[in-house]
Amino acid sequence: MKSKWSFSIIFVVAISILSIFLLGSKLTENKTPIEVYAVYLSGQKIGTVKSKDEFNEYINKQEEKLKAKYGVDKIYTPKGVEIKKIITYNNECNTNEEIYNELVDKQNFTIKGIIIEIEKELTNEDNQEEKTETLTINVINKEMFDEAIVDIIKAFVDNEEYTKFMNSTQEEITDTGEIIEDIYIKENITYKEGYISTDEEIFTEKAALTKYLLYGTNEEQATYIVKEGDTIESIATANKLNTQEFLIANPEFTSENNLLYESQKVIVGLIDPVISIVVEKHSVQEEVQKYATEIKYDDELVIGYSYTEREGEDGLDKVTRKYQYINGQLADVALVSSEEIKPSVSKILVKGDKYVPDVADLSYWAWPTSTPYTITTYYQYRWGSFHAAIDIYVGFGSPIYAANNGTVYAVGSGCVRGATGCNGTRGNYIIINHNAGNYYTQYMHLNTILVKPGQTVSRGQKIATMGNTGYVVPTPAYGSSSYAGTHLDFGVWKGIPYNGGYTINPLNLY
Questions:
Q1: How does pLDDT run across 91-133, given as a tens digit for each residue?
Q2: Does residue 272 sit within a domain?
Q3: Are 306 and 350 in contact (CB under 8 A)?
Q4: Looking at the structure, do residues 493 and 401 belong to the same domain, yes or no?
Q5: Which of 267, 285, 300, 377 is the Cys-Cys partner for 391 at CB 3.0 to 4.6 Å?
Q6: Are residues 343 and 259 in contact, defined by beta-carbon separation less than 8 angstroms?
Q7: Which residue(s) pair with 194 in the sheet?
């Protein structure tokens, strides 16, 4: 009995020791920590992988189509994904395929590229408040963007002039001539390398990027098929373009005088550049100054009779100016100096008249500014809308003259009296009724007004001074004495302006 009992005790003790050994081994195994990588999407854990590098390489192998589409060597995890190393006792991880499939269903993958931000200034035409907006463009590399910028510059600047400017090989002005002083982009542009989601627009080709920068869109531009009798000017006007805008949209043409052929396809889309290419030029030119015609009235001579007392003779001035062009359009001009080489001689015409007339003599019209002057905008389409007058620049505070005899119909500031559909402000203005041929003339953006409604004015009489009131481009700095945008907006109407009348080209009078 004693022997049997002893054996039982020994057996129990042995089993207990074996259990303790096995349990200790198990506990020892579970207490050995391992490193794994937790994958989070937008802060939520979606699983773990054994190796971050192997997981990223798995993604790279699965996305061969994306790599081919964007011409890159590597695809990256989606935005919002974080992969963090953690220490755990659990050695069970998700497969790379499981985590990849989870991400494919929820987010787009990313590629490494260049994020370009363009800060643009916006001006409200009604109150001239300036605001800014930031435009973001994604590109594969900065070199492509830089090359596209050069293409845009060459759309607005003659290629030979641009090359000479960049190589510093422009000929110095010794007597007369013109040189480019500076070329720059008006907007503030910043670049940064980053990860771009493939659901965003990413430019991979320079041609598409250049088109976007020029037109503000990658949509197909409107085209026109040339018909017999068409000219570049007629096609441009019919499509609300000026000839310069047409030539920019169709760089195969070098001049508005280029010949067209029937059935030729041309682009007539409105350009709306994303960036502003500013070109500043210095010009010294000899300019013919047309002689003025002085009219003398002889009370002893019957109305309708006249004779020339002295023939006129043109003069010659050497004029130095600074020009600023924005995207091919003249935006500002400053007169630096004017040297008289040969004075002009006024023509003196004596006309019969026994009183001071308030009726215009339609055979003679005075130029509304002093000389020398610059016409900055003609009677033409500009930026998609028709400019129904001419803009003339001389200088801030220079005199403005009545173009002919007449009666002051209206003066004021803002929208013209009786106007319908008046957009924005035209600043200080004068309208003269010439009491002949249903002619009216308008003078806008004035600095000071020197006449009153109902007053009779004579041809060549000073009625105002040149200014930059109202909406002008470039906009004068608020609260300063800036003379930016100074010019005279001179318009000619048949019929009451903005009240049944219609405009004609002012240059037709001269």
A1: 889 999 999 999 998 899 999 999 999 998 876 655 556 688 8
A2: no
A3: yes
A4: yes
A5: 377
A6: no
A7: 113
